[in-house]
Amino acid sequence: MNILFHRKTQLGVTVLSFAAAVVVCMFCPMQIPIHFVLGQGPDLLVNKFLGLFILPVVMTVCLLSRAFYYRVGWAVYLFAALQIFVLYQAAVL
Length: 93
Prior knowledge:
This protein is α+β, with helices and mostly antiparallel strands.
């Protein structure tokens, strides 16, 4: 079995995503950007709790639905990459 699709690996990525969101939540402003227009900067701001924790929640749903559909494991890594981008934007902007 591939190590990337092992249940414990995906669970670890999800837990790290939650932990990183908690740490960044302490340092970011109340509104964080989630949508950008090329060359103009951010054009959509959301509450920091929604912006930081929605992707880890979706990752958890993907883990729970993995029992029904095996390929949803790729979604965990896609959302983890998006979470890294959102955390970076929340901490920097």
